[in-house]
Amino acid sequence: MNPEDIVGPVEGTKVPRFAGESTFARLPRIDQVSDYDVAILGAPFDGGVSYRPGARFGPMAIRQASRHLRPAYHPDLQVAPFRTIQAVDAGDIPCNPFDIDSALKQIDDGASELVSDSRKLVTLGGDHTVTLGLLRALVKVHGPIAMIHFDSHLDTWDSYFGADRTHGTFMRRAFEEGLLIEDKSLHVGIRGPLYDQQDLINDKNFGFSTVRAADFDRMGVEEVIGLARKRVGDSPMYLSIDIDVLDPAFAPGTGTPEMGGFTSRELLSLVRGMPREQMIGADIVEVAPAYDHAEITSLAAATLAYEIMSLMALNVTDKKG
Amino acid sequence: MNPEDIVGPVEGTKVPRFAGESTFARLPRIDQVSDYDVAILGAPFDGGVSYRPGARFGPMAIRQASRHLRPAYHPDLQVAPFRTIQAVDAGDIPCNPFDIDSALKQIDDGASELVSDSRKLVTLGGDHTVTLGLLRALVKVHGPIAMIHFDSHLDTWDSYFGADRTHGTFMRRAFEEGLLIEDKSLHVGIRGPLYDQQDLINDKNFGFSTVRAADFDRMGVEEVIGLARKRVGDSPMYLSIDIDVLDPAFAPGTGTPEMGGFTSRELLSLVRGMPREQMIGADIVEVAPAYDHAEITSLAAATLAYEIMSLMALNVTDKKG
Amino acid sequence: MNPEDIVGPVEGTKVPRFAGESTFARLPRIDQVSDYDVAILGAPFDGGVSYRPGARFGPMAIRQASRHLRPAYHPDLQVAPFRTIQAVDAGDIPCNPFDIDSALKQIDDGASELVSDSRKLVTLGGDHTVTLGLLRALVKVHGPIAMIHFDSHLDTWDSYFGADRTHGTFMRRAFEEGLLIEDKSLHVGIRGPLYDQQDLINDKNFGFSTVRAADFDRMGVEEVIGLARKRVGDSPMYLSIDIDVLDPAFAPGTGTPEMGGFTSRELLSLVRGMPREQMIGADIVEVAPAYDHAEITSLAAATLAYEIMSLMALNVTDKKG
Amino acid sequence: MNPEDIVGPVEGTKVPRFAGESTFARLPRIDQVSDYDVAILGAPFDGGVSYRPGARFGPMAIRQASRHLRPAYHPDLQVAPFRTIQAVDAGDIPCNPFDIDSALKQIDDGASELVSDSRKLVTLGGDHTVTLGLLRALVKVHGPIAMIHFDSHLDTWDSYFGADRTHGTFMRRAFEEGLLIEDKSLHVGIRGPLYDQQDLINDKNFGFSTVRAADFDRMGVEEVIGLARKRVGDSPMYLSIDIDVLDPAFAPGTGTPEMGGFTSRELLSLVRGMPREQMIGADIVEVAPAYDHAEITSLAAATLAYEIMSLMALNVTDKKG
Amino acid sequence: MNPEDIVGPVEGTKVPRFAGESTFARLPRIDQVSDYDVAILGAPFDGGVSYRPGARFGPMAIRQASRHLRPAYHPDLQVAPFRTIQAVDAGDIPCNPFDIDSALKQIDDGASELVSDSRKLVTLGGDHTVTLGLLRALVKVHGPIAMIHFDSHLDTWDSYFGADRTHGTFMRRAFEEGLLIEDKSLHVGIRGPLYDQQDLINDKNFGFSTVRAADFDRMGVEEVIGLARKRVGDSPMYLSIDIDVLDPAFAPGTGTPEMGGFTSRELLSLVRGMPREQMIGADIVEVAPAYDHAEITSLAAATLAYEIMSLMALNVTDKKG
Amino acid sequence: MNPEDIVGPVEGTKVPRFAGESTFARLPRIDQVSDYDVAILGAPFDGGVSYRPGARFGPMAIRQASRHLRPAYHPDLQVAPFRTIQAVDAGDIPCNPFDIDSALKQIDDGASELVSDSRKLVTLGGDHTVTLGLLRALVKVHGPIAMIHFDSHLDTWDSYFGADRTHGTFMRRAFEEGLLIEDKSLHVGIRGPLYDQQDLINDKNFGFSTVRAADFDRMGVEEVIGLARKRVGDSPMYLSIDIDVLDPAFAPGTGTPEMGGFTSRELLSLVRGMPREQMIGADIVEVAPAYDHAEITSLAAATLAYEIMSLMALNVTDKKG
């Protein structure tokens, strides 16, 4: 888009940040612009959770916390994202709260209408099940993809209480459905005990590679970034961040917290180093506001969404540069 | 049972109430006695909720709060319930979190194993959907029943997002399945706006009568009790208490709170006056601990369960008397 | 408006209430309709508070809580408000957080653009200072008015730390500016100690009458309603509800709580009995979400706004009837 | 004292209530005046509790909440308490947290230094055990007394885990030590189940009379006041308020909450009607701030302390009148 | 034990983790197995605390949080702990809440019944006083021991308010009673100011060595592990973790928090490196749930208990290896 | 002062820390000593905030949390601060809550009375606007100063809603008013997006240097300390800590939190290395207790104030040494 045609967020110097629109970062709604580069999308579904529910309120809470952002310029990345790309808020997909497969279809359909080669989605969950619906939509445009998956859990169980598509199984289903390119994906931040040792073996068999939280202590930020770039190569990459990859101190508002996670500064450094040139979409999931306090989890999720949009803007700047 | 054979709760003067067993009121587990009169049962299912989830943690939280009770003697009812009846904790039914009908079947099956003419259940939800499963089990023993339903909502919608059995539709299903005797049931505490005026008409057509919160101001405790007794007559009666019948000040920890509800003292007075001689079972549902504070909602639910068991014990005393 | 032209809220049976628009009760935005009968307006200003700040986040929080409403039909008032009147959400006035008089002017200007003889406002505060700005706008249309003022405080101090227009002085200023008709206004719910006995004498001199919380115990709902109707007579009436008129148990999320307030059921009964035929506007102020829990204060405020809009709709029905 | 010599609280119109001294209601410290009529005293001891501890932080929290009071004039009682009596904050008694009897002796000694025929104490607990120490001090000045005891519990157990002096036994000890006049004391607000039916019989044998919460529904405020006045007659009276006499909705921040308690308005009405002419001292105990939210429990306790001091001031006014 | 005879926890794939037994990690109760290798024991006593009480609710809260664990396989340690050792939940010791020495004797007696050369305890506090009772029991079996003590405080005061055995003095008493081998013990994580410089000198005189939090910045994980292993040598080692060794961000739910503590990942790395071959028992103490939120402190404690049991299982695997 | 004349804090071994005076660290009040070296001062003003208000309650909350300190000896710095310098609590400045310039004048006047060459202030905010008032007072004594500014924000906007002196502009005003020596000041911890790229350029033009949070990852503690010492040289230095320099996990209780901040251990290390010999005063600001939990933010602020006073004491020890 022409920079001069871009409609930016409501300006915090004119309307106080605690007033006005409830869109993400107070961006324009999708119906207020003629076209867009990146759309924020809410997927308020938590019917796939195995422990604490509540992520259905995630999109609402992340948008509220995003009011706090002063979004004009990102000094670490040196980009003015919302003057570079047209970003919009596309609202929420009305997901059926009682039927996982209906909800997945609604997400697939809703996302399919919004994505194209040049239009990207940054989705706010919802539990991690929603990523399966999103991948189905994206693969129709981009073909199979490499996944960078920040999470404390592998999410590659086979089934859970007879349900094949839940927040603990979606990665396996994605692989089985051919949505992921074999040997290209990477889990980062995995920790905590397992129901079964076989989980690890299965996971490897699906062609995933893993950086456990304990590995990170040894590897450091740069080595993990290097590994991620190597795994992805020149494939299209999707970035999925389960907020529970952060330690519960940084993200209490989530459904399946695990002790021993990343600090928020570590996660920001890692995300900034991901192979953004390949990134065709992203999501931040598993924010359960009923367990949050002082909005720290929602604010972390909102900041991550902003970081990702800034990386997308940087890709545009790079090409122009 | 023989009073001298009754196994009572752990004594608070020997083991501090913050220590020891996590059973309801620190009662014996079902496997620790040869038989029982009343069993507490957990139904940790919240897959049928339309707004805030979390009632799956209800049974756990109510049991924790029940530790606070000093259960030996109820001075208002003048009964020593756990020396009069053998009460036990039967644990939780492992409900499928992803499939409403599976969960209902698990509840029906689980409850069916526990109830008989002489054995009663007091169930801790879970969302209100669980009552449907419980009624199915009870009706097999007692035939169709009269329902006294404390709630801020009618729960007689037809369906919701294509789901026929949810916490907002279970009363209608119960009627349609023939579980309720026509013209014998009563809603108490109804308030708040509706999706549709037709809801009220339907409800009447199903043979329910209603005491709205606004009616209660005019009628008072005694008149409502009289109406309940008249409705039930000599039919078997089931008492279902949605904790949201209390005002949010008294029960913040619930999924669909409505301003303008009962105080806890009003609810206790009403419950104590219900036609206990006809009561063949009861439940307390919709406690969502993530929204509670200082355990006030869980404590209210635990106290209500204790009141109900005391009423059941009083029936035994009456007969002996 | 023609009922068939009315645009109603997003339907909760199609889009779950936790998804979609963040407008009040998910009503249409003002730019989505050609005209309206009643507009919800946010006045996120708390620069006039003397104790706990935070009411700037009130409009946002009340809108979030209003998602919970199922707004189609009000069974106690027997009206379908949003099929009877065209209600809209007019967004927030961007109030200057640092300058009380600037903010008051912004509120006066903003409200003036929205009100007319046939268009009414229901405003969500913000602290009680905002009512002064609103009255200035309304008086330009309706002339001086009678005020029904639910509050635990008189708000008739002369000045506070040199500031003449604060949440503790706005009622006196309103009187002095000729915005209120002498001997027509009424305070309801006043309680708590005072800085000075003279406050009471002054208040009377300004022509206010007062129902203290302690008076209410003696008078009851009907007598207070009678007094309110008598005071107002056939003058235009403005209804201003400081949420702290509720007891802190029912409304912890406020800036200057006072022990011994109304229950939510008492307040609903009183509000429903106010002389609605005279009501030319209303506000609900002093919701400070940082002190709320489980949204009980925000939900009370949202319900009150809905009640008021239902009363406004009832006026329309009455005329047609 | 001469009214003109009285040192009042820091004025809220000169120093904002959120600033300055942390004394109760920002009254002068005891070392800042030459003499006093009433002293606020903290007894931060919770070593006698049987369930949730934390009342050691009660005095601190109640003082913080008392900042919110505008203490100059009490319009319901029509008295300007701090212009009528010299009230001071006497600080805290440093109670031994590990030894109940040491703490009781410290409280007895500390209170004894502060009370005389003309000097009264209003003590902030601490758990209810502290009342025993206070009574020992008072009886040395006034002889045995009548007790008006607002509480949800009788506090007349014999012993608990071998401890004879705890928050559940202090009333019995007080009777046995001859601190209470037989047949003059009254429990108000009692509710909840008991460890033993014998508790009730014992209690009667100690000469206590009881108004249960359930009795109050029938009796109402005036009848309870009449009974209290009749019981006390012309004996010296001590008023002890366990904050758990309020319903948990009004006082969540306490150690042994019981469903079904008083509303704050009911409690205020009752306290205002107590035989104040006989009142020689008072306490408010069992505020456990870790379980409070938005300071509602602490504010209730602070308001009650202010009410009591206003009643004491009224006695002075009466005599002068 | 024979692996095939081992009774494992309730399986999370059959009974959802939010349902069923409230034992630690849903392990079998001690009465459900014939013998055991490791028992979880609750010591709900907080009568020895100097600041915030509430750790009496620690065992209950840690067990609740432990439901979240998926305990079958520990991928970082490569062990399936509950298939390797028979772990059980031995319930709580009913500690006298009013008498420290009685409670210590109850803990000593209770633990003595449960430990032997081949049976180990992992105890959940309670405040740190309980460790003294546990050491007394253990030394009867193992003789004096080396202590690895994770804490922000030395706990070697002489006495406090005349009490010799409190959570701030237990380490000194343990040394004086001959329970600790001189020059073998190590404090890790110490920080914050002191009542007296002499504390440090005394501590050294008792033969303790200390790694302050500030030292850790310089030393790193590996050097601290090396020092711990060197100190312990081949002596029997007891591991005691005061949860306040974590920074308050990671463990807000504790009684005496100190700024500047470990992150949860640092603590996990340190614990995993401790000389597990020598470990004859362990405890995790000072979890005060009233100050926790979203269970992050309880979950950290539960995870640490699981890590320790996994290390104990690894010792078995090593020997078999 | 003569060490033997120094009046220290209330001793925690004589009066439990939860009892007694509410001064900072229970130090003597300023009126209890003849002279002092360092005074704690409260500046409870939050009229300059752009997002979440509430820092007016900061001084009160930090003092409450400071009770937890055992302040006699600082083992890392090896100093007994309150035996080395006479520290006092000077209470709060009664700031006008409605008028920024009045409040700034009150702060300037109040601080001017308290500071001299040999008397230093450590001020507890309040929002960051208060630092401007403090600098005005200090510069009158010391001349222009170098500023070490820990914060996540630059605070060098030009104006905000027409207000020139707010918490987002005070640094620019300080520069323009000649309070800061050009090229001597340093921002540490800056992060998050900006309203405008120009902010960075302006900031440099004002002669500030910046260590962003992202720079810190690369530089480490020692290099930042070196840079700070180099910037300050031998100029008088003022240390201003906005608590939001900590990550929200460590300091949730603040008004404008930013993801990705310092851990508390990093901040302590940095503060300890600052050029203390040059330090002529300090403040800790932006603690907003309504958003805190378990006092972790207030405790961090209290600990930082204690660290700073310990550094000031160390300067005295150095000179004597």
Q: Can you tell me about this structure?
A:
The structure is a homohexamer of 321-residue chains. The mean pLDDT of chain A is 95. In chain A, α1 crosses α9. The first copy, chain A, has 9 helices and 8 strands. The first copy, chain A, has one domain: Ureohydrolase domain (Arginase, Chain A). In chain A, strands 2-1-3-8-7-4-5-6 form an 8-stranded parallel beta sheet, with helices on both faces. With 321 residues, the first copy, chain A, is an alpha/beta fold. In chain A, 35% of the residues lie in helices and 15% in strands. Chains in contact: A-B, A-C, A-E, A-F, B-C, B-D, B-E, C-D, C-F, D-E, D-F, E-F. Chains A and E meet through α7 of A and α8 and α9 of E.
Number of helices of chain A: 9
Helix content of chain A: 25-40%
Task: Give the N-terminus to C-terminus distance of chain A in angstroms.
Answer: 15 Å
Query: What's the name of the CATH homologous superfamily of chain A?
Result: Ureohydrolase domain
**What would the CATH topology of chain A be?**
Arginase, Chain A
Tally of discrete structural domains of chain A: 1
Low-confidence stretches of chain A: none
Radius of gyration of chain A: 18 Å
CATH architecture verdict of chain A: 3-Layer(aba) Sandwich
Overall SS class of chain A: alpha/beta
The string of secondary-structure elements of chain A, in order, is: EHHEHEHEHEHEHEHEH
Shape verdict of chain A = globular
